[in-house]
Amino acid sequence: MGNAGRDWDDSFDVVVAGSGAGAMTGALVAAASGLRTVILEKTDLLGGTSAYSGASIWLPGTQVQQRANLDDSTENARTYLRALLGDDGEAHRESFLAAAPEVVEFLERDPVIEFKWSPFPDYFARPGRMDLGRSFMPLDLPLEELGDSAALVRPPVDRDRAGKGHDPSAPLQQGRALIGRLLLAFLNSGNGTVRTGTGLTELIIEDGRVVGVEAGGLRLRAERGVLLAAGGYENDAAMRGDLPGDAAWTMAPGGNTGDAINAATRIGAATGPLDQAWWCPGTADPGGRASFTLGFRGGLMVDGTGTRFANESLPYDQMGRAMMGHVPAHLVFDSRSKGRLPAISLPGASPADNLEAGTWVKADTLDELAEAIGVPAAALTAGVERFNGFAEKGVDEDFHRGEDPYDTFFAAGDGPNPCLVPVDQPPYYAARMVLSDLGTKGGLRTDPDSRVLDASGTPVPGLYAAGNTTSSFTGAHYPGPGIPIGSAMAFAYRAVQDMKAGA
Ligand code: FAD
Prior knowledge:
eight-stranded mixed beta sheet, Flavocytochrome C3, Chain A, domain 1, FAD/NAD(P)-binding domain, alpha+beta, binds flavin-adenine dinucleotide, 16 helices, 2 domains, seven-stranded antiparallel beta sheet
């Protein structure tokens, strides 16, 4: 290749592009195994979407579930995934299931890493489901334990979008705690280097093997391998093509523009289907972005015809999929929630700002509300009346809201069905809803050891990928809370095991 001739600026055993959960896990596993490892992050902050996340981690059959005395096992998780996914992605699924307990055992060997089970139901009624979930989270991390390096971790989405750093009075939590703990262990290993503001631009090939990268104007050698874990192409409108949703509505921070996928395809790597994302409902924010919205505790959602079209309490990826063809939509609610959205919305703007911007409207009657959002008044009024009848009976005859353990997890109503709260106390509100995503999940084709494949299905020597840079084995499903991060971590671990085995 034309880019192989110049001298190297630096040399490592492992080069990792990206700094989300998969990248940081791979980097730590490599560094803790004695491999000199560099993390390259394009933006000035580490963590990507993973830092924004709740850090729910779906890795089944591990010591964390055992400590929590859950009646769960690898076999149980296999039953669940097989019932949901069928034969699709079976080899990757088995690789994931085998890696899950190993990666957790490896990480928790480090004194700064500890996980704790946290209840959050699996998303599908299938054999092997855990009604209270099997995913776990990292423990909070006091800022002082990370010292100056805490400023390198991307803050929560509300503060980050507002241009603020971490709240100095609070520990790092959720995604920030995950990235912070992995970073601390990585730095403590003595084998780790971190370069922010250094985006990977090209892969360097010699004799058919990836031997290094170009990043930030530097040529960095990778003796054992390059791990691409630089997120998806959420923010690249051209790459998204006709993927449902919109780059403006994604929750991923701006650095995720498919660079790693493109660098790999330029040297002959193959991609799987680019038609999937981890979808979710989003409330349209005054600033033109969207807020990830889940856990609806009231209200009903209607489309442009003023008609309800789904069980609003569905797990967010399923609700996102249900919204396709029905957006823009509106969540219609009443004054029971005291002027606030009856749902969790991240980052979520204030009601006053939404009303001023017109992303929410408020009216004394449903007819006026219908006019304000441009839907037929008769349809909206009839739909709300029908919904209120369901609330009174406790049965959603149209969409079965409240019949699944996931639905009731967030419910707060005090009627016969806690998910069905009548909408009958004016003033009424309508919040504009859009189709958002937590990341694209189509990308490089890999084998079960996370080796990147070319068009003939042959591994490209020296090149590995994990997380949203790859095609997910879950296809068009989001099996449970923490699958994006859990699978990114498991496949990053597999990549480093293969690099070590190839020594
Ligand atoms: P990211 O975490 O986005 O990391 C990619 C990184 O690569 C970014 O920092 C980016 O700047 C960097 N990068 C891009 N290009 C380059 C380049 N050329 N060179 C170097 N670096 C580059 N999922 C869960 O599993 N559990 C949850 O609890 C959960 N909660 C969520 C809550 C919220 C509010 C959101 C928004 C998402 C949540 N998700 C959750 C989804 C999940 O966070 C993401 O899908 C996942 O973290 C993506 O991981 P990743 O490593 O592929 O990418």
